[in-house]
Amino acid sequence: VSEASGRIIDVKAAILGDNDRAAASLRAELAARGLLLVGLRGSPGSGKTSLIEALLAPSLGLSARRRSAVVEADLESRVDADRLEARGIRAVQLRTGGFCHLDAAMTAAGLAELGLPGPPGKAELDLVFLENVGNLVCTAQVDPGAALDLALLSVPEGEDKPLKYPLAFARADAVILTKADYLGFGDFNLDRFVADLGSLNASAPLFVVSARTGEGMARLAAWIEGKLEATLAGAG
Amino acid sequence: VHELPLVTRIVDLALGATPPGRRVSRVELSVGELCGVEPGWIERYFRVASRGTACEGAELSVAAIPAAWRCAACGGSFGGVPAPGEARLSCPACGGGSSYLEEGSEWRLERIELAETGEGETA
Lengths: 236, 123
What we know:
Chain A is of the alpha/beta class. Chain A contains ten helices and eight strands. Chain A has helices at about 5, 15-30, 50-55, 60-65, 80-85, 105-115, 160-165, 165-170, 190-200, 215-235; strands at about 10-15, 35-40, 70-75, 90-95, 125-130, 150-155, 175-180, 205-210. Chain A is globular, with a radius of gyration of 19 Å. Chain B is about 20% helix and about 30% strand. Chain B has a three-stranded mixed sheet with strand order 2-1-6, covered by helices on one side. In chain B, strands 4-3-5 form a three-stranded antiparallel sheet, with no helix packed on it. Chain B contains two helices and six strands; from the N terminus they run H-E-H-E-E-E-E-E. By secondary structure, chain B is an alpha+beta fold. The interface between A and B is large, with 35 and 42 residues. Strand 1 of chain A pairs antiparallel with strand 6 of chain B, so a sheet runs across the interface.
């Protein structure tokens, strides 16, 4: 062994490895407690809070059948949590203090505010929505520990976003096109969007929804309900 | 606000691998092609994050990990970085337009190189 090679140290470490491990262990713990944590990612104004509001509206039945709550993340304000609570939705607000994304430790802190995971056995809640900071870049690279990773894009943002931010869409478990009531008013090309998305993420289902008109919401709620049933069936 | 915590973590990992009393002369990273990393920014943050540590003054190299996609139709593997205005990704073997991401989003610290004993010492 030469002097030179003695100076090289192979580290081979995933730089986000600590967070990846924390996220995986949080995911496993929540699954064992029968709790489904649904993460939502998207740009500021993509309609994350409105989508959660609509999913937990009494008309869809999800909130009547399931004990649910929301963890909101924002740089500074608690506007989103206040807005949800005004609708009777239990919500806590994580202030990330300038951090542009959630990590597993922040998610765990938000869940702790809801008293989760709590004592051993079935968790007190069935379903928690985790709204990430409005950001398409960093949120795709840092795993917050949710069981389902939903990427949102709103129609007014334009159909080219999957090609501009491929990672944001390539890694999602499902993609939600929001503000579908705007389709037809601008130049959003739905066919091109669907084809672009398929080239990046062939396995993610696409939901085209409008929280305002209710279009597509029942199908999305039923899909989440199915994931919840699978979580409950798999819980130890 | 995204790169600085990552670079801080890189410096911590590098320092964790450095034997006591030694200094680091080179840090080698690999970053997935889809991470949208600007090596210039990483270097600037590295100067800040390494200040006053055994990594201060180390040369930083950033290698790209090519994106790898798996064709949903034939299972073939191919590369490419999607971009608006460019041809949509498609499988060069079968022409299929549905694929999955397999690689290209990683951040890895590959290796560090230690300075010769005495080299770069300030005291």
